[in-house]
Amino acid sequence: MYSLTHSPIGAAGRGTHAPARLRSFLAGLAPACPALPCPCSPRPRERGAGSFPEQPPETSAPPGRTMADNLSDALKKLKITATDSTADSLEGCLDCLLQALAQNNIETSEKIQKSGILQVFASLLTPQSSSTAKVANIIAEVAKNEFMRNPCVDAGLIPPLVQLLNCKDQEVLLQTGRALGNICYDSHEGRSAVDHAGGAQIVVDQLRSLCSKTDPASEKLLTVFCGMLVNYSNENDTLQSQLINMGVIPTLVKLLGIHCQNAALTEMCLVAFGNLAELESSKEQFAYTNIAEELVKLFKKQIEHDKKEMIFEVLAPLAENDVIKLQLVEAGLVECLLEIVQKTVDSDKEDDIAELKTASDLMVLLLLGDESMQKLFEGGKGSVFQRVLSWIPSNNHQLQLAGALAIANFARNDGNCIHMVDNGIVQKLMDLLDRHVEDGNVTVQHAALSALRNLAIPGFAASKVTHPLAMFMLLSFRNTIKAALLFGSATCREASGHFSAASPPVSSVQWNCMYLAMVWAFSGC
Question: What is the CATH number for 89?
Answer without folding.
Answer: 1.25.10.10
